[in-house]
Amino acid sequence: MNSIGKVNYVSYDKLCFDITDFDKLEFNNNGSYYFSKGILDFVTIINNQNEKFIYQVERIEDTEKAISFNENSKFKYKANVICSPIGIIENNKINFNLKTYPFLQNKVYLTNKDEFNIIFNTKSDNPIYLGVINDQYSAKFDINKLLTFHSAVLGNTGSGKSTTIRQILTEIQNYDYENLNIHVFDVHDEYSKLNDVSVIDVLNDYQINLKDLELQDWINLVKPSDLVQLPILRMSLQLADTIANGSISEIWLRCFLAKTLYTHVQTDAIAKRTKILSLLEGTDIDVSNYSSQYANFTKDNEKIFLDAITQKMLSQHAQELEYSFLQKQITYSSYTALSFDELLKSLNYVFYLEECKGNSQARNHSNTLETRIKEIQSRYHKFFHSSKTNLEDKLVTIYNVSELDDDLLLFFSSYLCKKTFNENKQKELINREINVFILEEAHRYISRNKENSQLYELEIFKKIAREGRKFGCFLYLSSQRPSELSSTVLSQCNNYLLHRIKNNIDLEYMSKTIPYITTNQIKRLSFLPTGTTYSVGELFSIPIEINIPKPSKNIDVTSTPAIRLKEL
Fold first, then answer.
1. Nearest of 138, 153, 156 to residue 495 by alpha carbon
2. In percent, how much of the chain has pLDDT > 90?
3. Using CB atoms within 10 A as the burial measure, which of 31, 87, 311, 439 is most buried?
4. Residues 6 or more apart in contact with residue 544 via CB below 8 angstroms
5. Measuring CA to CA, which residue among 481, 405, 474 is closest to residue 442?
6. Measured at the alpha carbon of residue 434, what is the angle toward residues 462 and 126, in degrees to the nearest 5?
């Protein structure tokens, strides 16, 4: 091999050498043709102990040097090449951690094919093929390195994110796995044409039983405000469960509310009468003497009315007439509602309870909460059903969530992740399955804006990011807007497949959030060609560029349609 230069500067993170004879950058060696590609090319430095150091070219500068000290001397042009360290070849293996470094005047060579084979040796028992490295070396990785780490696939629209994910899914299906499950949240209906996958149209084919929802699920679903509506929602759910499990008779509750409103609440008499009559409807308590004109009783009739309410309450729960009884039953109840109707009914009772306490504005402040519940009930009634969803036994399950708005998307993704995480957590270690959640357009629901929300909408994603490895659950985030992703979740990723990103805000956010990436690598992202991913993290020991193969035209739903002229 021809030496192309000698080292003139070396530090821990940088090495420089000069090229003075440009003819040496192109030659034939043992039947192989070599030429320098310049930026991103690899070079080998050999020291006096015959150790081989591999570096990658980052920058090339044109400089000129006087041939002699004569004032009219001609200048000799040379190239100053700046490189970053990759590793050292020892015993036909690459060690990516340098303990020693080249020295000044050590010779520099173009890296040869044997050395490339050592550097990019990604063999494994069950290799997953991602693409091509350096235009000639197959990028094949062990599936455990690819899937059993939290990962992020980031890049602008049209940069090739979906193609990368499709390649991963297609390759995974080449093998039979005993305990692997891939869950894809397909926001744009891009993956339904993949072969041998289970496709679920979430709004039409998936059913969730309301009794399976926990408090956090309800919060993610109905989006209460954290200061006023959240306490109302919590009490409504507990009250719904209290009534459903028989801890409190609904008739007792209605009588208690009516009596409290009549005896303790000072408000418009006509409005109060209307509420009391509504509460006592169907209780057999005589309200005929409750004057519709003046909204009052005579003294004797008032006593009869109140005694009738008391007796009715005692008939439901002996010796229980006070609010403390109601409060105790609510406290020990779960956050459960068996139907939207029961929740709305309990919500109405909670409004009455608040009015009994003097809070006359609770109903007005919670109008949006009530409206949201009714909208969900009306619009998504097929989605919430007691029947069980039958899932095909497939390696890859595609959840078509293209018809879900962002709030419902957050609810469904967090519900399914939490359900799967908790089920796996209950199993013995040897029986735990590997569940990988591929979250398309993750910035829409795992949002930075919700990072510190008092509603804790992202809690399950944060929990999986922190603890998922132990319980076999892994996140695969895909996003075109990294700056809008939760920094907590993004920073927990160990693999990053980065595509072209030009937005300065996104690039700056990534430099602060991703622990593996350097300033020079961030700069490179703006110039990546479509279909090329820059792999950073645990997948490979050094950052590498991988050219992802293009999908066949019949399954490439992400390509932009062309404008066609009419045929004459």
1. 153
2. 61
3. 439
4. 120, 133, 139, 534, 535
5. 481
6. 125
